[in-house]
Design goal:
Elements: E1 2-8, H1 10-13, H2 21-30, E2 35-42, H3 46-59, E3 62-66, H4 77-85, E4 89-91, H5 93-105, E5 119-121, E6 125-127, E7 136-141, E8 144-149, H6 153-164, E9 174-182, H7 187-193, E10 205-211, E11 214-223, H8 226-244, E12 248-251, H9 256-267, E13 271-275, H10 281-287, E14 296-301, H11 305-312, H12 316-322, H13 327-341, E15 345-351, E16 366-373, E17 379-384, H14 389-412
Parallel strand pairs: 1-2, 1-3, 3-8, 13-14, 13-15
Antiparallel strand pairs: 4-5, 6-7, 7-8, 9-11, 9-12, 10-11, 15-16, 16-17
Helix pairs in contact: 3-4, 9-14
Length: about 425
């Protein structure tokens, strides 16, 4: 069985509201072995909704439509379903009674506009919604089973879990998703290394996405049971990790800060930070991990050159000769941070996050990160991030932490 999920509403197509219903439904269907072929978002247009339902029913044998079942003039999904079936709306007396009782129990008077929620396309089954006013519906369109559910996430989930899920075929197997996160190479570079594993139609299916500064690899596997999934997916996971080496950060919900923290904890070592252009972002990301007090000593936000001199001991002559955004200053910041906190490691960062402040010699996006340690020679890395301010700061923070992560990995090997 394959599915298409339709989400209805101008608030979705205009970008005012994020569609979380489709993601939830896709995960639930995948856990039952049902693959979602497409998500489609349609505005509050009766003809377009009807056309989308017809197209979805030609593509898949399960169609779930969320939204457009409310009492206002722009709620048009029930009318669109009637158009699709070529039938009229009819007043469902039982649905109306349930609706009136819903308001009565809450001490409210049902207004006339709510009667539309008891108007059901002829021949369509009503699915009682015990947590809201918009009843769900079930209908056959050609060879496809169609379910209409409210767009309110809480009501949609209740109807799916308490009504629709029991009507779905018995589990047809498993569809699992595993995600590997990488950092330090672009999507095209990652793709080139694993191109032969990304062939369409394979099982597992391998694909890449980019988000929050990371290149992630999705491995989607279909099998009859968990043992089958593991037999198919694990060799592919192992091969991906082997090919990509140290740029593999972790899997699933593992973040850079979480992975770095675990490495520091295992080594019994500590880190401190000295930040300029990131304004404390590295410290914030590290301390977002529970238990980070085991290895994070603290940080200095040295946004102004005076602070770099007074708290980190960066010589004024160095700043005058090379400028705040330079490799020598980044190294001096790291060394001063190491001394100030007496930590095992110190990370420093200085750069131009923009949108102003750049020059031909030092453009916006230029960042230097440095790493100092008690027992190793300090290092600095020059990077240039062609992005907007927020992304420059994020990617810079990740790059600084990754410098320590890769160093700790090299010391373990």
């Amino acid at each position: 069985m394959n599915a298409v999920i339709l989400s209805i509403g101008d608030e979705l197509t205009s970008g005012q509201t994020v569609d979380t219903n489709s993601a939830y439904l896709s995960r639930e269907l995948a856990s039952r072995g049902i693959a979602t072929l497409a998500h489609c978002t349609i505005g509050d247009d009766r003809a377009l909704i009807a056309q989308a339902i017809r197209s979805a029913c030609e593509l898949a044998n399960l169609v779930i439509v969320t939204g457009g079942l409310g009492p206002t003039e722009d709620d048009l999904t029930r009318q669109a379903l009637a158009d699709t079936l070529g039938v009229e709306l009819r007043l469902d007396e039982k649905c109306l009674a349930v609706l009136e009782e819903f308001f009565r129990r809450r001490g409210r008077t049902m207004v006339e506009a709510n009667r539309i929620q008891a108007m059901i396309p002829t021949g369509v089954e009503v699915l009682e919604n015990k947590v809201g006013t918009a009843a769900g519906m079930a209908a056959r369109v050609g060879t496809a089973q169609v379910y209409l559910v409210p767009g309110v996430p809480f009501e949609m989930k209740w109807l799916f879990e308490n009504v629709i899920a029991a009507r779905l075929p018995e589990q047809q197997g498993l569809i699992t998703h595993r995600v590997i996160h990488t950092f330090g190479a672009g999507e095209s570079d990652v793709g080139a290394k694993i191109a032969d594993l990304m062939k369409r139609g394979a099982n597992p299916t391998v694909g890449t996405t980019v988000a929050a500064g990371l290149v992630s690899i999705r491995v989607v596997t279909r099998a009859a049971d968990a043992a089958g999934v593991n037999a198919l997916s694990q060799p592919v996971i192992d091969e991906l990790k082997s090919r990509l080496g140290h740029i593999v950060l972790g899997e699933e919900d593992q973040t850079m800060a979480l992975v770095l923290g675990e490495l520091l904890r295992r080594a019994g070592q500590t880190v401190a930070t000295a930040e300029s252009c990131t304004g404390g972002m590295i410290g914030q990301m590290i301390t977002a991990v529970p238990g980070s007090s085991d290895y994070y000593m603290g940080g200095v936000i040295a946004y102004d050159n005076r602070i770099k001199q007074e708290l980190l001991g960066v010589p004024q002559e160095l700043l005058a000769q090379h400028g705040a955004v330079s490799e020598p200053v980044a190294l001096a910041m790291a060394a001063g941070c190491l001394k100030h906190f007496n930590s095992d490691w110190a990370i420093s960062i200085t750069g131009i996050a923009g949108p102003g402040g750049g020059t031909d010699e030092k453009p916006v996006g230029l960042v230097y990160v440095a790493l100092a340690g008690k027992t190793v020679a300090p290092i600095a890395v020059r990077t240039l991030f062609p992005a907007q301010r927020d992304m420059i700061r994020l990617r810079s923070s990740l790059a600084a932490m990754d410098l320590l992560r890769t160093r700790l990995l090299s010391l373990r090997s």
